Amino acid sequence: MIVLGIETSCDETAAAVVDDSRQVRAEVVLSQLDQHRPYGGIVPEIAARSHLDHLDGLIAEAMRRANLHFADLDGIAATGGPGLIGGVMVGVTMAKAIAAVAERPFIAVNHLEGHALTARLTDDVAFPFLLLLISGGHCQLLIVEEVGRYKRLGTTVDDAAGEAFDKGAKLLGLGYPGGPAIEHAAAAGDAARFVLPRPMLGRPEPDFSFSGLKTALRQRVTELEARGPLAAQDRDDLAAGLQAAIADCLADRTERAIAIARTRRPDLAALVVAGGVAANGFIRARLQTLAASTDLRLVVPPARLCTDNATMIAWAGIERLRRGYIDGLDFAPRPRWPLDPSAPRAIGAGVKA
Ligand code: KG4
Ligand code: ZN
To answer: CA 310 to CA 201: how far, in whole Å?
Structure first.
C-alpha cells in the first residue's frame, strides 16, 4: 500500500510518499519561515498564497523521487484540518483533484492524528499510548486508543507550549520562531537567577496554562530595561528561567496524566511526545526522567517528523486506509477538528482544537 501525503495547514508546504512497510519513499518540505519572519508570526493570507504557488511543484518532486506515477498510489491523503483554513483548502483541493483523476481514494487526515500516529511509523508503538502534543498551536495530553479513538485528558486554557516559547522569545528580542532561539540562549543561561511561575502545578486535571508565565517574564524584562538595555547575560538567564518553567509545567502535567491514564488503561506502555516543542533537548531530557520513573517507554520521533511534515499525513493515510476509512470528495476543510469530540471545548485564543 502506497500513499501520497500532503500538508498545508500552517507554514510548511509538504508532500511525502510512504508505504505500509513503513518506508518513507520520498519527503519534501518547503518552510515559509522567511516569508513570515518580518511579521514576527504567521500571516494566514501569505501562507495560503505560498501553498498555492509551491504545492504542485513539491508533489511532482516527491513523485519523481519516489519514482512513481499517480496511478501507482493506493490513496491520496491531505490534512483536512485543524489549521489555517486557506492553506487547508489548497491541500485538500489538490488531493481531491489527484484522487479524482487517478481514480484513487481520498483520505482527509486530522493534522493532530498525523502527529499522534508518527510514533507508530518510526517506532512501531502499540496502542494504547499517552501522547503529549506540544506545538505552536497545540498543547494536549491524550490517550491514543486506536486510529480515530482518542481520550483527551488535558489541554491548554490559553497559550500552547510553542506559543509560550515564541512569545517569550519576542519579549527577549530573540526573533521568530522562538523555540530554537530560547533553547540556544538558555544553554548559556542560569535558570536559577529568575524563577518564573509554574501555572497549574499540582492541579488534579492535567491542563496547561502559559499566559501568566509570559506576563511574569514581561515584568522581569521591564524591570531590567528600566536600568538600561537588556544585557546578553540577562537575556540568557531569562531564557533559561522560561525554559525551566515550561519544562516543569510539562513534566508535572504529564505525570498527572500518566496516573489518570493508568487507571483507565493499565496496559499503557509508552509516553509519546510530538509537535515542534519536542525538538527541545532540555524538555526531552526532563520527560525521559519522568518516563523512567513511571516505568514507561519514552518515544520522541526525530525532529523532522516532530515539526509539521507530510510524512505523518501519508502514514496516517495508510493507517486509515488499512481500516477502510476513506472520505468523499465532498469533504469540507475544518478549521477546528478536535481529536476527542466528547472533551469540553477549550477556551482561549491559542487553542485550535
Ligand atoms: O509542530 P510545529 O512545527 O508547528 C505547529 O503545528 O505549531 O511547532 C512549531 C513550534 C513553534 O512554536 C516553535 O517555537 C516550537 O515549535 N519549537 C521549539 C523548538 N523548536 C521548535 N520549542 C522549543 N524548543 C525548540 N528547540
Ligand atoms: Zn503540527
So the answer is: 35
CA–CA separation, 177 vs 280, rounded Å?
13
DSSP 25-87: EEEEEEE-HHHHGGGTS--HHHHHHHHHHHHHHHHHHHHHHHT--GGG-SEEEEEEESS-HHH
Nearest 5°: phi and psi at 153?
A: -95, -30
**Hey, what long-range contacts does 340-346 have (CB within 8 A, 24 or more apart)?**
340/142, 340/150, 340/151, 340/152, 343/151, 343/152, 343/155, 346/155, 346/156, 346/157
Cα four-point dihedral sign 256, 307, 7, 63: negative
Distance 162 CA to ligand 2 centre (A): 10
Residue-level pLDDT at 43: 85
User: Across residues 145-160, what is the average pLDDT?
Assistant: 96
How many Å lie between the centroid of ligand 2 and the Cα of residue 121? 16
Q: Which three cell numbers stand for residue 144?
A: 491514543
pTM of the full structure: 0.93
The reported pLDDT for the residue numbered 350 is 47
Query: What integer pLDDT is reported at residue 233 of this predicted model?
Result: 98
Ligand 1 is surrounded, with C-beta below 6 A, by 10, 135-137, 162, 165-166, 177-180, 183, 275-277, 279-280, 307-308
Which residue is it, cell 510539562? 250
